[in-house]
Design goal:
Blueprint: H1 4-7, E1 17-18, H2 20-27, H3 31-39, E2 46-48, E3 51-55, H4 56-71, H5 83-94
Helix pairs in contact: 2-3
């Protein structure tokens, strides 16, 4: 019989699975937004006993793709005001 420790991955994180809640904490996003990204397939996931789980390697892939997208020339990116900027404009108009 093979020792189970030999079958487990070395600390490369290949087989680590994260819940939606854990992913949202790692990405510092809300649970609902994280779930939406997963359900849309933007963050790849697997179903394990009826629960959506995100493999560590897929989470890293998502993070790396986001960095690549942000590093593309600024001409291709659309600018949207942040919620905070919008709130400050509204407050300044009230005064």
């Amino acid at each position: 019989m093979q020792d189970i420790t030999n079958a487990l991955p070395n600390n490369d994180g290949k087989y680590i699975l994260y819940s939606i809640n854990a992913v949202s904490k790692k990405l510092k996003l809300g649970y609902t937004k994280t779930k939406e990204l997963i359900e849309l397939g933007i963050i790849e996931s697997v179903a394990v006993t009826g629960r959506l789980m995100v493999p560590h390697c897929k989470l890293e892939k998502f993070i790396n793709q986001k960095h690549l997208t942000l590093n593309i020339s600024d001409n291709n990116l659309k600018s949207y005001p942040s919620d905070e900027d919008e709130a400050l404009k509204i407050i300044s108009n009230l005064n």
